[in-house]
Description:
Helix content: 55-70%
Radius of gyration: 15 Å
CATH superfamily: AhpD-like
Distance between the termini: 20 Å
Number of strands: 0
CATH architecture: Up-down Bundle
Number of helices: 9
Structural class: mainly alpha
Low-confidence stretches: none
Shape: globular
Oligomer: single chain
Amino acid sequence: MTTKLDPFAASPAVMKAWFAASMTISAGLEPSLIELVKIRASQINACANCINMHTAEARAQGETEQRIYLLSAWREAPCYTARERAALAWTDALTRLSEGHTQEAARAALEAEFTLEEQVNLTLMINVINGWNRIAVGFGLWIETPAKAAA
């Protein structure tokens, strides 16, 4: 893949603010959950850059290969907690908004597992990763993961 445009070079101040907002929003929930959400949204959006980046970050935080590999079939896999399932259902519903209104059941699970503040934080995180997916796919970004770069 060849980068079509480097948004960090083209608009450094805005991209710096976008990155800072992303980091602030990420801090509102447990890191393992955030990485699962980022990977799942990136799978739905077919963002190879973000799948590559966030699977590496999840592994670095101790996530298992099994749970990473099973994310595309999370509904059928028994290895996710009720809280993780609620977050993944909410991720699917919000990432696939154009496919119809499927968020009612997802919202009920969300409300059962997350505080009001956490619901907002998770929703913002889903918006952030969907935004990063669109930036990466739209501009053909590929950021090598530190583990791969070191090798």
